[in-house]
């Protein structure tokens, strides 16, 4: 059974950093693209970043470009989201999701989701 588990969320001050992890089980990440999405209270879930299978091409939302970095470690079957220079507006529940091979910004294109991890940026 395909399963994704996020971890690494928490409370951080503005300007701080966090690294989120998305660990996969029941399948190998080698053939899947992994997207990170986030959902703030009262808002739609939005795409943050994505990494493809194979050559590992990456994409970022404009709001996080230059601050967030997505990476994958296929040996550990894990994808990471390094978040630097965090802002209060980054506060949300962060989810990772998997789809075969290619990235997408549309959450309905992803069939498997983790349970989410809370990120709170506040002084």
Could you characterize what this model shows?
It is a single chain. Helix content is 0%, strand content 50%. It has 123 residues and is mostly beta strands. The strands form 2 sheets. Strands 2, 4, 5, 6, 9, 10 and 11 form a 7-stranded mixed beta sheet that branches. A 4-stranded antiparallel beta sheet has the order 1-3-8-7, with no helix packed on it. A hairpin with a 4-residue loop joins strand 7 (68-73) and strand 8. The N and C termini lie far apart (40 Å).
Provide a compact summary of the structure.
The chain is mainly beta and 123 residues long.
Radius of gyration: 13 Å
Rough outline: globular
Query: What is the β-strand count?
Result: 11
SS class: mainly beta
Distance between the termini: 40 Å
Unreliable residue runs: none
Helix content: under 10%
Beta fraction of the residues?
over 45%
List its salient traits.
123 residues, mainly beta, 7-stranded mixed β-sheet, 11 strands, 0% helix, 50% strand, globular
What is the fold's blueprint, element by element?
Elements: E1 3-7, E2 10-12, E3 18-25, E4 32-39, E5 46-51, E6 58-60, E7 68-73, E8 78-83, E9 92-100, E10 112-113, E11 117-121
Parallel strand pairs: 2-11
Antiparallel strand pairs: 1-3, 3-8, 4-5, 4-9, 5-6, 7-8, 9-10, 9-11
